Amino acid sequence: MTTPEIDLAAADALLGDDTARFRHDYLEVRGLRVEFGGFVAVRDVDLTVTQGDLRFLIGPNGAGKTTLIDAVTGLVRAAAGSARFGGAELLGRATHRVARTGVGRTFQTASVFEELTVLQNLDIAAGARRGPATMLRRRRATPEAVEQAMETVGLAALRDVPAGVLAHGQKQWLEIGMLLVQDAHLLLLDEPVAGMTQAEREETGELLRRVGSQRVVVVVEHDMEFLRSYADSVTVMHQGRVLAEGTVAEVQRDPAVVEVYLGAPTGAAEPGTATMTEGRA
Amino acid sequence: MSQSTSTLTARLAVLVRPGRSRALAGFGLAAVLLLAVAPVLLSPFRLGLLGKFLCLAMVAVGIGLAWGRGGLLTLGQGVYFGLGAYLMAMHLKLADAGPGGVPDFMMLYGTGEVPGWWEPLRSPVVALALVVLVPAALAAVLGWAVFTRRVRGAYFAILSQALAAAFAILLIGQQQTTGGTNGLNGFRSFFGYDLADPVNQRMLYLVAAGVLLVMVVVARQLMTSRFGEVLVAVRDQEDRVRFLGYDPAAVKTAVYVVAAVMAAVGGALFVPIVGIISPADVGVVPSIGFLVGVAIGGRATLLGPVLGSIAVSWAQTTMSEQFPSGWIYLQGALFIVVVAFLPGGLASLVTTWRRRRPAREDEPGTPATPDAAAAPDAADLLPEGSRA
Ligand SMILES: Nc1ncnc2c1ncn2[C@@H]1O[C@H](COP(=O)(O)OP(=O)(O)OP(=O)(O)O)[C@@H](O)[C@H]1O
Ligand SMILES: [Mg+2]
Prior knowledge:
Chain A is α/β, with parallel strands linked by helices. Chain A is built from 13 helices and 10 strands. Chain A has helices spanning 8-15, 19-22, 65-72, 95-100, 118-125, 132-135, 144-152, 168-181, 198-214, 224-230, 248-253, 255-262, 273-277; strands at 26-36, 39-50, 55-58, 80-85, 88-89, 103-105, 186-190, 216-220, 233-238, 241-246.
């Protein structure tokens, strides 16, 4: 079995290059607040992410990054604020309705359907709009988009393997593939490269860059090296608030960010891999 | 890419075909046994018993879908079985009484008048339609209400069981219109056919066998369809499915309705074959009894529920002839043992045995046949939250 590899050409075929259609896509979060029984996990968060701007969302453990994604996708209820995408208000909608407006997400722990095959996982992801007649029949041919997604994430040879037996990195790729066939135009990825090898990280980074040029993408990551290589812009969260926002260089120079990451305002230090990856591996 | 696609498709076909032909062969064998061999070999009495078992197995097919594939631990299928059975029994009573007549038990216990809500059941067509529609509607309303509120796991199980208990109590309380504890019995004819005639009894048996076979085909179609894949996905990762744009409540309600209809049809055929339906056939204990056969046979497989259910029914009949009160304990013990030590049921032994055989060298990993989307472990008896 050859090691699977990301296929960027297939990704391009899947994503399409019709930039005009999606040029105006953007995510706009305003005044978002999430509480868990008195504890404020996210407060007054404003966030604007446009297509073509691969945005990284970073911050120490417990900063509220996952909660932000949860609120936007309807998993937890926002106490206040708004989150708009493609002209539609997302907050207050049921999760599956948020998904149908073109919002897709992955989870911090890879969550694929372990007993179903790679093909079945992707086919399900592609099928939320299928009518009853299609649903009640078995799948005869593989849909074009599913085929392309399998090529993209390098799992075409493993199509009939139950997702549960895939390697960790492959599962995460499968999840990204599911987002692509789901035809999500806003992709929220929660630590997509955690636990991946260096080579896998690089391939994932290239893929995300490609996806980011055609879709609105927000990546939550702790890996600073990965961030430096692939982020177009960065939003730093701390204790539920947005602490800083800008390019990687700008954020690295920000004294407040340095303080949060290193515990003391010590001049030239940059948000180092030391603190951020500690306790994660 | 088109070339690699076609070779992959060819390989896929090779992987799938053995499963299909095996299923077809198994189905053919079962059909011959049920439709040709059993009627010749068995005495009318034994054939009637088998017919009864087949009706109970119809409930099991539905439970296999809802529980095995959909993760809905429904402890209350007696309700739907009972609805189908009582609707059919009411029609038979009215038909026996003749046009405008009053069923015998109503003369005894009731006002001597047929209640208004019985009247539509005089028509055979309406009766047959209601046998399907009433349980389907109840399951749809109940399922939607429960599943959109995200009641699941053990909470759903308890709720469904409470429903069965309430249903039995309701029936007992309405002696004038439902026959109370005695239930409805003493049917003389079935859509114009004399039920005392052995030829008609055999015909009824054949109808039951045919209907069961059709249900198995329907179940297989559902399992191998895209719906079946989504169903397994909902069972294993409900939230993930939601983020893909599906509404799990709709998926669960659909399978719950299918299971309800299967149970109801089983109940409707049970009535003319067995000759009586009473609250004792529809309450909590029989509802759990339906589950036992499914668990033992293998809930996530196609034939496990049917075979398990027939085996348990047969064991129950044989055992209770000798130890009338011992059976219920044995049934409980069997259930616990299977759930604790063999969550996939006896069918999982077959699967394990198949896997142990040397795999063909060109297969990438474990091939996934439809019946390999095996059962989850005993953990799904626990509330959702207690799982990792
Ligand atoms: N369901 C919940 N109930 C109560 N508190 C919660 C809940 N979910 C998250 N929190 C709290 O909200 C805060 C933010 O958590 P969140 O998971 O969003 O952090 P994060 O930035 O994603 O951290 P990490 O980098 O560790 O993933 C934490 O203090 C966490 O304990
Ligand atoms: Mg998180």
